[in-house]
Structures are given as C-alpha cells and as structure tokens.
Write a structure and sequence with these properties.
Keywords: Signal. This is Matrixin. InterPro entries: MetalloPept_cat_dom_sf (IPR024079). The radius of gyration is 17 Å and the shape is globular. Helix 2 crosses helix 3. With about 260 residues, it is α/β, with parallel strands linked by helices. The termini are far apart. The relative contact order is 0.24. Helix content is about 20%, strand content about 20%. It has one domain: Collagenase (Catalytic Domain), CATH 3.40.390.10. The protein has 4 helices and 10 strands; from the N terminus they run ββαβαββββββαβα. It binds zinc ion. Zinc ion (ZN) binds next to strand 2 and helix 3.
Length: about 260
C-alpha cells in the first residue's frame, strides 16, 4: 500500500525537522509583545519495508495511542488567508476546499475515534490574498507581517510543506504561515485510482501543518505511526486526514493549558 519509487534506506524516516523554538525575532519588542517563531517541516517518507510493517499495526492503535507532543503556543482565534498563486493545475479548483477541511478538522478536533468536538480555538477563513507565506525556498522563516497565509512555492528536498508560527509572550499565536511544495511532488485532493509514486494527499498534509499551528509537535514515526503528527508522510496515504487519539489528546491538553 505504501510503496515508494525511491530506494533510499529507512534511515530517512527521521529526516530533519527544523525547530527554532523560542528565538526572539524582534529585538525592539516589549516583553509582552515579544514574538517568537518556530518552524516545522513535514517531510516525505521514502521507506518501503519499514512503512509496510507500520501499516500492519496501524488500524489497531489509532484510537488507543494517546501520545502527543506539545509546543509552547496555542491558538485562540486565528484568521487565515489563502494565496492560490502557483497552485498545481490538477487541484486548482479543489485545493482551497481541502485546506479548509483540514483547518476545520483541527478547529473542531474532528477525529477517527468518535470523540466529541472541541470548541476552544477558532479559525476563520479571511479570503484570498496576494500576500505570500513568509517562508523561504530554503525553509527559513522570513518575518512576521501578522497575517496567516497558506500558499505555494519551492521547498528543500523531501519537504512537503513548512509552517512558521509566531506567538506572543503569553504563548498565543499571532500568525502562522504555511508554504506547500509545488515543484517536487504531485498533490491530489481525491485519491487517484491505482495511486503510485510520489503523490501526496493535500488534506492529510494540511491537517498536519495546522496541528503545528495549533501547538502540537511531532510524535515518533514508528511507535505512533497512526497519528497525524509523525514527522513524515507516505505517498498515497489518506488514512490520517482526521485526528487520531493522540492528536486529539494533544489539542485537548492545549485547551486546558
Ligand atoms: Zn511536522
């Protein structure tokens, strides 16, 4: 089910996640307004044998594995914008719908386990914009304009999407930008029949990125393989569009933080 056309070793499963936690980026800001930036990459999973083994164990654990990792911020109310420049042609008319679905999944804690909706955070869609996500092609956070923009562009090898999140001294998110690769990988919003090769599900990827915005970090690629917050994703996989028990438990913990 999760085969890859590449043959790199399983050591790439733990491919680099860049974390720049707690670095002040505005030196003149007052303590209360001090802005912090954190960047997270969602890499792709080139594994063959390892991923196949994980798949066998998957279904049984998605609602019993309550593992999560918290970052140091959370969302109160976030207004997000979409820049459709550079959207791949095959999903031009459906990408925004998938990104919206992912955002709503995280807003409500929509999950695979029948757990009740959450109401603590609010994400509102503010429309389209020509502002660009402030994420560079080398995956660095390039500044904060207080706008949360999701859009398309170039990212380093293996990086599907990249999110930079800015939060204040109280740990509340001010803005969060997500850049989605539009060069190296093929995206789908409806899984193609006989899906093969480096084709990835946009909704799964954006659920993962929005969970970073919400305040979750990565869990273990192997031990927590059914959760959406593993560091890497598999081609053609749509099984993690909604939250697993660990992803949900993480959001719940953030709500009471
Ligand atoms: Zn990630």
């Amino acid at each position: 089910m999760r085969r890859s056309i590449t043959t790199l070793a399983a050591t790439t499963l733990a491919a680099a996640t860049v974390i720049l936690a707690g670095q002040p980026v505005t030196s003149q800001a007052t303590a209360d307004d001090q802005v912090y930036v954190v960047a997270e990459a969602f890499t792709y999973d080139e594994g063959d044998a390892v991923t196949a083994a994980i798949t066998a164990a998957s279904a049984a654990t998605e609602c019993t594995d309550t593992t999560y990792a918290l970052k140091t911020w959370k969302v109160g109310t976030l207004n997000w914008l979409y820049n459709g420049a550079g959207v791949p042609a095959n999903i031009a008319s459906t990408a925004l719908g998938a990104i919206t679905a992912s955002t709503n999944t995280v807003a409500k804690g929509t999950n695979r386990c029948g757990l009740a909706n959450l109401t603590t955070s609010t994400y509102t869609y503010g429309g389209t914009t020509t502002l660009k996500p402030q994420v560079s092609a080398t995956a660095t956070c390039t500044g904060n304009d207080n706008k949360s923009v999701t859009g398309w562009g170039t990212l380093p090898t293996k990086v599907l999407a990249y999110t930079c999140t800015y939060y204040n001294a109280k740990g509340v998110v001010i803005a969060s930008d997500t850049l989605i690769d539009n060069v190296a990988y093929t995206w789908f919003t409806t899984k193609p029949a006989n899906c093969t090769g480096q084709q990835y599900d946009l909704e799964t990827t954006l659920t993962h990125e929005r969970l970073h915005t919400a305040g979750l970090g990565h869990v273990d690629q192997t031990n927590n393989a059914t959760q959406t917050m593993t560091p890497a994703s598999s081609p053609c996989d749509t099984s993690r569009r909604l939250l697993g028990a660990g992803d949900y438990a993480g959001l719940k913990a953030l709500a009471t933080k």
